[in-house]
Write a structure and sequence with these properties.
Layout: E1 4-8, H1 15-23, E2 30-32, E3 35-37, E4 49-50, H2 53-61, E5 65-71, E6 74-79, H3 81-87, E7 91-95, H4 101-108, E8 112-118, H5 121-131, H6 136-149, E9 157-160, H7 165-176
Parallel strand pairs: 1-7, 1-8, 2-7, 3-4, 8-9
Antiparallel strand pairs: 3-6, 5-6
Helix pairs in contact: 1-7, 5-6
Length: about 180
């Protein structure tokens, strides 16, 4: 089995930008999984597959998710196509959740490569302000949550995402290969 990269980081750390850039790379070995989420297709920046609560529950009952979890009043799933891709020799990147890292580890064991995005407070504040989705109070709350995030070296590889997107992509590729 190949690698499943479980990418984690606080809101605004650049996960969606990094995943989008990875999708543009000419790497025939690496695929980026789409998540199935119970939120509108046009909500946020993530390239996801929008499902209603009913659709999500139906797919979950039918065993169509390799992993699924609930967070931020939404339900998230990664389809069983993930297992097919791994068995076919591909490495797969998933926009993961640190609260559900243990679930991913239980299913994928040593094939799982957890990577934590780290962004300095100043850069994170600038990114959150620039995207314009949150109020000043919400930005402060996200910064406080991010401060609690502090990646653990025993838990994951650390990828600093303060610099350019090109540098982050290069660092990401270097970490997993």
């Amino acid at each position: 089995m190949n690698k499943i990269v479980w990418l984690m980081g606080p809101s605004g750390s650049g996960k969606d930008s990094l995943l989008g850039a990875l999708r543009q790379q000419e790497n025939n070995q690496l695929l980026v999984a789409h998540r199935y989420i119970t939120r509108a297709a046009d909500a946020g920046c993530e390239n996801h597959i929008a499902l209603s609560e009913k659709e999500f529950t139906q797919r979950q009952r039918q065993g169509l998710f390799a992993l699924c979890w609930q967070a931020h009043h939404q339900r998230y799933g990664v389809g069983i196509e993930l297992d097919i891709w791994l068995d076919s020799g591909f490495d797969v990147v998933v926009n993961g959740s640190r609260q559900h890292l243990s679930q991913a580890r239980a299913r994928y064991g040593k094939a799982l490569v957890p990577i934590c995005l780290h962004v300095s407070t100043d850069v994170l504040r600038q990114r959150l302000e620039a995207r314009g989705r949150e109020t000043a109070l919400q930005i402060e709350q996200r910064l406080q949550r991010a401060a609690l995030y502090a990646p653990n070296l025993d838990e994951c590889l650390i990828l600093n995402n303060d610099d350019s997107l090109d540098e982050s992509v290069s660092s990401f590729i270097h970490l997993i290969y």
